[in-house]
Design a protein that fits this description.
The protein folds into two domains: 139 residues, no CATH class; 55 residues, no CATH class. It is 79% helix and 0% strand. It has eight helices and no strands. Helix 4 crosses helix 5. The two termini are 25 Å apart.
Length: 199
């Protein structure tokens, strides 16, 4: 972490703070969890800078399992080691699991209702909007990306075309474009280090 980032970043006060923070976050995350995570961890709690959030979220997305669960494990481990990772995971899953089981029991009796089906379709549109809005808010981070803004936009466009238009499976997009992006970033980091190294 750079000096300016370290000066503004905070950390969870305790394991209890970590647990209840992730519980609160999880209970808000109906559909548009990305928007909630970014607002809570970056804007409100300031546990991560926007740059750190984008980097950690990228790693969380390529790991197996739900993105936000992966992120909770990473943040818990960063501040409290293995205990923190387990506490953050418990915060993400304990109360939401109980809530989902209760909702599943209720939903089983009304699942065939046309009104419920319409409500679920509407919630899907709202969730998509939340994700898109968060993506637009994080665009500014690309200006500081080591790959360069134009290259970042090129990879974003190529990913969109591959997945949305050509229907290429996500695993192949990650393996192909992800590998190229990693190689380009590694090359750029090497150039930055070479420029920073005194002759």
């Amino acid at each position: 972490m750079s000096a300016p980032q370290a000066a503004t970043a905070t950390r969870p006060a305790s394991l209890s703070d970590l647990f209840w923070s992730f519980t609160h976050l999880a209970l808000q995350g109906f559909g548009g969890v990305l928007a909630v995570v970014q607002r809570e961890l970056v804007d409100k709690k300031k546990w991560l800078t926007r740059e750190e959030f984008v980097e950690d979220w990228a790693v969380a997305q390529i790991l197996p399992g739900p993105n936000v669960v992966n992120l909770s494990l990473m943040i818990g481990d960063r501040y409290f080691g293995l205990r923190g990772a387990l506490v953050a995971l418990a915060g993400m899953l304990a109360f939401p699991l109980l809530l989902v089981l209760a909702l599943a029991a209720v939903f089983a009796g009304i699942a065939d209702s046309p009104g419920v089906a319409g409500a679920l379709r509407g919630m899907g549109a709202v969730a998509a909007g939340l994700i898109a809005a968060t993506g637009f808010r994080l665009i500014g981070v690309l200006k500081k990306n080591v790959m360069g803004v134009a290259v970042c936009w090129s990879f974003a466009a190529a990913s969109f075309i591959a997945i949305a238009l050509l229907r290429v499976p996500l695993a192949w997009v990650l393996l192909g474009l992800g590998s190229v992006a990693c190689a380009w970033a590694y090359r750029q980091l090497g150039r930055v280090r070479a420029l920073d190294t005194p002759a």
